[in-house]
């Protein structure tokens, strides 16, 4: 889990062009949207692409985004639960 | 003054075909038949029911870009319906909006080119630029004065009609052919799909269960003339552009602000320019894309501006799909049609209002109405919000 | 009158004829990042913008360096009239490449030229009229005439000009025009032409 979250932080910074951040700047439970990292709807779509490309997980309904992408930890949990065998 | 109109879209290749489709409530949205794409049997679209080769044949053009051919077809109809003896007599301009330009042919070029950089026909890319589309249309309709191309996303062609009205008001031009054209492309289909705002079913604008838009294609043009031209050419124009405004929502690159502040300001300011009040508007042709975000934002702005005295309103994108840079031109033609025929168009597939707004659009085709003033909204990415008002000329 | 103008060309950012930032021997991507860093503004969204928006953003930052237009004008009284030759082709190309694997939504949203106008409006809370013209070259007459039409009513200020980029080639000329303020030059076709063609930093 720790390793997965570390990887995710690096991938998120890369995919979302968060050049002002380092992986250690992102807390495991820190909210990613609005008041936390300030990500927006387009970032959420990029995260969907990220999950598909790096983890082969397909999210069909963008409305699910806010729940899954609440924090790095919730994303890691979602990946663990849905990762194809 | 509006002297002529021309349109081609998924619901018809001419004005009479279009009106007939509205009367029959016959939507143009369906499975993809023209475009070669992976999404063929998945995403419904509003395609013009002619191949590019057929369009070229009808317009007597070489198979240049689909965008240009659609534009030529609609612009010619607009000029023919205006009944101006000769465009050459007047200071004439063409202002055409497009967002994809010649992208459709560039995509034809890319497949072989990507396999092998020595392959691909260069003549497929010479008309790639948006401005090239305008030049091709100008050549085909014989306009060689003022040419301009506007690309402000989905509000583009309202902005071209706005510019045309201003140029005539300021006495800089006598006749302006203004509107826009866009063809379906893989570029836009994939792009909107990546934004996850394409409905896999035909769209349901302003409905509580709406789930995205369908892309469409087509072109719509108006011929605007000065009063002098109207008098000298004995044109009995039925309406004129009485108000317009363009504002920026200044909220997000692509999303509309939840309170619809840009769309509110555009509608309010266009009313100011026209000197009309909200009570004078008889019909609103909505932007109404069918996305969760647009309809909520636009509806909120309409509720705030019109409160409980809302005019009849509907989104004709439920017939044509969202034709991007062309939609403002196509819907301007529909707005003029509403005034000319005293009719309003249905908003297809509407079942239940958005709970937070309670707006019920027009669901039937209705004629025999007195439609004096029509407001048409077009909002685009980049926060670009435009609203335009067409008013009947009293005789 | 034109109260400020900014040119970004040949790895220089020039404000009102004076070089503000210069960095030779870097490619455009690095030049833009370093120029942003030198501004010392906290606007992380900059990193997400495409190069067209980054160029427009930087030029607008320069024009409005020490002031907020909203002290003098209502948000609706400030207009934006932009133009360029290559529309959003620079980003269209990047997006097309991305779509060979998975189309990138973050790139797709920049595949329109007027997104730069949106970014400037968001940053400076401007809500007035926007236009974006695509023309073969900077057209001072179009700019002067159209801006005058837009400003015939209540609009008191406008940011206008040219923001163009394709690959490593870029050219930016942005100016602030205020109807009732004294400034550097009259807002006329001739003056715009002259300012656009200035190469003062070489002299």
Automatic annotation (TrEMBL), chain A:
Keywords: Phosphopantetheine, Phosphoprotein. It comes from the Bacteria. Residues 1-83 form the Carrier domain. SUPFAM superfamilies: ACP-like. It holds the Pfam family PP-binding. Gene3D superfamilies: ACP-like. The keyword Cell wall biogenesis/degradation does not apply. The keyword Phosphoprotein applies. InterPro entries: ACP-like_sf (IPR036736), PP-bd_ACP (IPR009081), Ppantetheine_attach_site (IPR006162). NCBIfam families: PRK09184.1 (NF006617). This is Acyl carrier protein. It comes from Chryseosolibacter histidini. The lineage of its organism: Bacteria, Pseudomonadati, Bacteroidota, Cytophagia, Cytophagales.
From TrEMBL, chain C:
One of its GO terms (molecular function) is acyltransferase activity. InterPro entries: Thiolase-like (IPR016039). This is 3-oxoacyl-ACP synthase. It comes from Chryseosolibacter histidini.
């Amino acid at each position: 889990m720790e390793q997965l979250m570390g990887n995710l932080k690096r991938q998120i910074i890369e995919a979302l062009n968060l050049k002002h951040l380092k992986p250690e700047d992102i807390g495991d439970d820190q909210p990613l949207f609005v008041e936390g990292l300030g990500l927006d709807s387009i970032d959420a779509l990029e995260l969907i692409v990220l999950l598909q490309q790096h983890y082969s997980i397909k999210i069909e309904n963008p409305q699910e985004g806010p729940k899954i992408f609440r924090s790095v930890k919730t994303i890691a949990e979602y990946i663990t639960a849905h990762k194809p065998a | 003054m509006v002297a002529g109109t021309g349109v081609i879209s998924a619901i018809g290749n001419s004005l009479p075909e279009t009106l007939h489709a509205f009367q029959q409530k016959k939507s143009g949205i369906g499975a993809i038949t023209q475009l070669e794409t992976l999404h063929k049997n998945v995403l419904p679209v509003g395609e013009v029911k002619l191949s590019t080769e057929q369009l070229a044949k009808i317009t007597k053009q070489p198979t240049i870009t689909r965008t240009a051919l659609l534009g030529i077809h609609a612009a010619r109809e607009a000029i023919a319906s205006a009944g101006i003896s000769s465009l050459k007599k007047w200071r004439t301009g063409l202002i055409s909006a497009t967002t994809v330009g010649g992208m459709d042919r560039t995509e034809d070029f890319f497949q072989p080119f990507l396999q092998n950089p020595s392959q691909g026909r260069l003549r497929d890319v010479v008309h790639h630029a948006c401005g090239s589309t305008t030049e091709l249309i100008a050549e085909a309709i014989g306009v060689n004065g003022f040419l301009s191309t506007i690309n402000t996303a989905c509000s583009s062609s309202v902005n071209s009609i706005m510019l045309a009205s201003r140029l005539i008001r300021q006495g800089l031009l006598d006749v302006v052919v203004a509107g826009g054209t866009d063809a379906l492309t893989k570029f836009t289909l994939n792009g909107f799909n990546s934004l996850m705002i394409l409905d896999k079913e035909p769209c349901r604008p302003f409905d509580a269960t709406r789930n995205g838009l369908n892309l469409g294609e087509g072109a719509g043009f108006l011929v605007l003339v000065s009063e002098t031209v109207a008098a000298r050419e004995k044109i009995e124009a039925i309406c004129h552009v009485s108000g317009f405004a363009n504002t920026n929502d200044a909220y997000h690159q692509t999303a509309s602000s939840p309170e619809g502040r840009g769309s509110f300001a555009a509608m309010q300011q266009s009313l100011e320019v026209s000197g009309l009040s909200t009570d004078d508007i008889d019909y609103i042709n909505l932007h109404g894309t069918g996305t969760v975000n647009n309809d909520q934002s636009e509806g909120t702005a309409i509720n705030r501006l019109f409160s409980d005295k809302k005019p009849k309103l509907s989104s004709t994108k439920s017939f044509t799909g969202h034709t991007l840079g062309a939609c403002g031109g196509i819907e301007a033609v529909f707005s003029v049609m509403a005034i000319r025929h005293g009719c309003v168009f249905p908003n297809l597939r509407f079942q239940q209002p958005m709970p937070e707004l309670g707006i019920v659009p027009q669901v039937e085709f209705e004629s025999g109405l007195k439609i004096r003033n029509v407001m048409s909204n077009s909002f685009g990415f980049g926060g670009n919000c435009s609203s335009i008002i067409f008013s009947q000329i009293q005789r | 009158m034109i109260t400020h103008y900014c040119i970004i060309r040949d790895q220089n950012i020039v404000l009102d004829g004076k070089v503000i930032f210069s960095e030779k021997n870097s490619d455009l991507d690095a030049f833009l990042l370093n120029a942003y860093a030198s501004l010392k503004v906290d606007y992380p969204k900059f990193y997400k913008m495409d190069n067209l928006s980054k160029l427009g953003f930087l030029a607008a930052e320069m024009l409005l360096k020490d002031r907020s237009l909203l002290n003098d004008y209502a948000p609706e009284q400030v207009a934006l009239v932009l133009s360029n030759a290559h529309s959003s082709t620079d980003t269209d190309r990047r997006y097309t490449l991305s779509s060979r694997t998975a189309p990138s939504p973050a790139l797709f949203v920049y595949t329109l030229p007027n997104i730069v106008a949106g970014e400037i409006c968001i940053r400076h809370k401007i809500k007035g009229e926007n236009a974006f013209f695509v023309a073969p070259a900077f057209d001072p007459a179009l700019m002067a005439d159209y801006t005058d039409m837009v400003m015939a009513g209540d609009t008191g200020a406008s940011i206008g000009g040219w923001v163009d980029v394709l690959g490593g080639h870029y050219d930016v000329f942005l100016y602030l025009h205020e109807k009732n303020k004294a400034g550097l030059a009259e807002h006329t076709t001739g003056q715009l032409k002259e300012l656009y063609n200035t190469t003062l930093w070489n002299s």
